[in-house]
Amino acid sequence: MKTSPSEPAVGTPQPPVVAAEDKTVLRVQAEAAASGRSRRSMLFSYGPVVGVVVVLLLLAAVFVPSFLGAQNLLNVLQQMSIIGVVSIGMTCVILTGGIDLSVGAVLELTTVVFASALKGHVPVPLAILLALAIGGAAGLVNGIGSTVFRIQPFVMTLATLAIAEGIALAFTNGSTIYFTSSSGVVDFLGGGGIGPLSGEFVVFAVLVVIAWLVLRFVPFGRYIYAVGGSAETARLSGIRVKTVLCSTFVISGLCAAIAGIMTAARLGVGVPTAGGLTNLDAIAAVVIGGTSLMGGRGSIWGTVGGALVLAVISNVITLVGISPYQSEIIRGCVIVAAVLLGSIGVLRNRRRTRTST
After folding, report:
1. Long-range contacts for 150-153 (Cβ within 8 Å, ≥24 apart)?
2. Is residue 271 within 8 Å of residue 107, measured between CB atoms?
3. Does domain 82-334 have CATH number 3.90.75?
4. Which phi and psi angles does 58 have, rounded to 5°?
5. Which pTM was predicted?
6. Where are the domains of the chain?
7. DSSP string over 129-174
8. Are 291 and 96 within 8 A, CB to CB?
9. 177: DSSP letter
């Protein structure tokens, strides 16, 4: 017996008919499950750094009662600001799978240039633009060297570190540059603020919000994650990988320049060795915050938590009066512990994801 094309053959199993209401229920259930997995992923991503911060705060409150003083807590926020600003740019670079070792030297160079400009009575806006131009140019050099000439970012930024540090020392002959300024911008960054919050922390907070908005809602932010996840896949998808990589290095240089301006304003002088271990502290803050050094995974809020961890450690060490030599040992141990906790959280998240799928 023949059947029309529109009629199924007798005995052929037919797919179950799902009503519109049932489809809606299934869709809602699927979205709820995806939301649940996303929340668990966020928990395991942010859990370790939040746990470290909470433990440090509790230990500090127990063993150093003066830590919970209102003024001291405001000092912690101020202490995390400069490293935090540098760490914002570092986060963008590391999310692409790169690294920037030059940020400390760029901070030093922009600090002395900004101080020299003010000493020479250059208008503050022009001095700020000059410092930002130097930071952006340093980042562009890193980006071009890493993408066009295919020099490994580690080597390229290490070379820029040496060059920028050498220029800063040669420019100042190794001496400190003193300046005076009655500018409201310098006063705001050096000792002013909004209410109880210091000007440095206000700038840091604004930059954090901007970075979060870009990484979360702007296509460029998604391109950063895509390049870090797989540069080749991103290229095949039409993303200009070299442009994205260069842009992240420029952002890192600009952030280092902003930190240099903040440093000069806080100290009231330009010190050619002000950078210190800023590059390592920035990398530590990013890694403590859960950003993968392989790229493609991390967040700006994790970096904020990492910067807070470092600031709390430094503050407690200062209050207790621990020797600077011993303090580095403590900082190193805490960083290792935080990174290990973050790695454990990532592994658990992957296992749960595989089990659920």
Report:
1. 153/93, 153/98, 153/99, 153/100
2. no
3. no
4. -65, -45
5. 0.85
6. 82-334
7. HHHHHHHHHHHHHHHHHHHTS---HHHHHHHHHHHHHHHHHHHHTT
8. no
9. E
Residue 226 CA, distance from chain mean position = 17
* Beta carbons of 130 and 339 less than 8 angstroms apart: no
Tell me, what amino acid is at 134? I
Quickly list DSSP for 181-217: ---HHHHHHHT-EETTEEHHHHHHHHHHHHHHHHHHH
DSSP notation for 50-64: HHHHHHHHHHHHHH-
| pLDDT (tens place) for every residue of the chain, 357 residues total | 445 555 555 555 555 544 544 444 334 344 433 334 444 445 445 656 677 778 777 888 888 888 889 999 999 999 999 999 999 999 999 999 999 999 999 999 999 999 999 999 999 999 999 999 999 999 999 999 999 999 999 999 999 999 999 999 999 999 999 998 888 999 999 989 999 999 999 999 999 999 999 999 999 999 999 999 999 999 999 999 999 999 999 999 999 999 999 999 999 999 999 998 899 999 999 988 889 889 999 999 999 999 998 998 889 888 888 887 788 787 788 778 777 766 666 666 666 666 666
Question: In Å, how far from its chain's centre is CA 123?
Answer: 31
> Would you say 57 and 308 are in contact if contact means Cβ atoms under 8 Å apart?
no
Tokens 């950003």 correspond to 291
